[in-house]
Amino acid sequence: xxxxxxxxxxxxxxxxxxxxxxxxxxxxxxxxxxxxxxxxxxxxxxxxxxxxxxxxxxxxxxxxxxxxxxxxxxxxxxxxxxxxxxxxxxxxxxxxxxxxxxxxxxxxxxxxxxxxxxxxxxxxxxxxxxxxxxxxxxxxxxxxxx
Length: 146
Ligand SMILES: [Cu+2]
Prior knowledge:
CATH class: Mainly Beta
Strand content: 35-45%
Bound molecules: copper (II) ion
Distance between the termini: 71 Å
CATH architecture: Sandwich
């Protein structure tokens, strides 16, 4: 067989391989963009009909610190129908102290709480993921230092 005859065969074969989803390379994970968050206590828009506030319950220092989030409708009514996940990590040593994305727990008062362990002095980032009915609706990052 002449080399020129292999050309079309090659492309035909590649086409078959590419069209088989089992053989296709796994899709790259979607790159999440975390919106920079303002200072704790400020109202942060959450979609069009909600806002939230966040902040550590106490000034964070080395050790255990509890992050608290409250969600309200635009009219100011508390809303606990979201799922919030959070992760604290040091941007300068990404992954070294990350606890992974953990779900906040709803308190009796309707606040979302997540205990974190800040194991090292320095610059930290707390990442929030807000979900509604299984869909991520907002990702935000709060930078702070201890
Ligand atoms: Cu560190």
